[in-house]
Amino acid sequence: EADPTSSAGAGKASSRSGKAANFITVAGQYRDQLNELLDTLGSTYPHFIRCIIPNHKQIKLVIDDAIVLDQLRCNGVLEGIKISRMGYPNRLKYAAFLKRYYLL
């Protein structure tokens, strides 16, 4: 009888009643879902729209600099700007990355 906790038995048939019954472990299901998610993410070109509230009083044309700055800092926008200004690329294909930094 196959051990369901071993990697060799994961996703294989159990032979309790003589008939082959397929089963999948929780780890196998997690792995399949993670691979599906990574495939989905790899096939997309994500972009983000961040909404910034200008003030807590909901008054139009009034901008509270401290509130806006805090939101930009928490969302990572300021860090992204700093990294870009330092000259680091924000997106590279793996082949371009490997070609540029292969010595490291």
Describe, in plain words, how this protein is organized in 3D.
This protein is mainly α. Mean pLDDT is 77; it is low at 1-15. The chain is flat, with a radius of gyration of 25 Å. A hairpin with a 6-residue loop joins strand 1 and strand 2. The longest helix has 17 residues, at 26-42. Strands 1-2 form a two-stranded antiparallel ribbon. The chain is 42% helix and 4% strand.
Ends apart, CA distance between termini: 49 Å
| Oligomerization category of the chains in this entry | single chain
Main sheet summary: 2 strands, antiparallel
Structural class: mainly alpha
Helix content: 40-55%
Count of alpha and pi helical runs: 4
Low-confidence stretches: 1-15
Q: Provide the β-strand percentage band.
A: under 5%
Q: What is the β-strand count?
A: 2
Lateral strand order in the biggest sheet: 1-2
- Mean pLDDT reading: 77
* Rg, Cα atoms, Å: 25 Å
SSE order, one letter for each helix or strand: EEHHHH
| Shape verdict | flat
List keywords for this structure.
single chain, 104 residues, mainly alpha, 4% strand, flat, disordered N terminus
